[in-house]
């Protein structure tokens, strides 16, 4: 289920980016009133803002809800044991006896 939600989350994020990039800014109203932008819109001169803003708002709400759900699912999937719960003493290492090898160039310690 988490994989499905993650894929839906990524698709909604990409679609949300696309809808935000399509929208015209507030400064475009001045040019549109002189006829510069009214004929180039797909939805007409006044219809694009309402459709795009509502769709963007719905996608943003779905994006945030999926963020909360995925965060909740991810918080419960971690290890339950802490590193500080097992404070045993480490195992003692055995020393390797050093032999006296006459052909070695490494000096031996006393």
TrEMBL record:
Primary location group:
membrane
TM annotation in the entry: 51-74
Task: Supply the Pfam families for this chain.
Answer: SecG
Is Transmembrane helix a UniProt keyword of this protein?
yes
Q: How does it sit in the membrane?
A: Multi-pass membrane protein
Query: Which residue ranges are recorded for the region named Disordered?
Result: 77-110
The coiled-coil regions, if any, are: none
Q: Where are the compositionally biased (Polar residues) regions?
A: 89-110
Write out the similarity annotation: Belongs to the SecG family.
What is the protein name for this chain? Answer: Protein-export membrane protein SecG
Species this chain originates from? Pseudidiomarina aestuarii
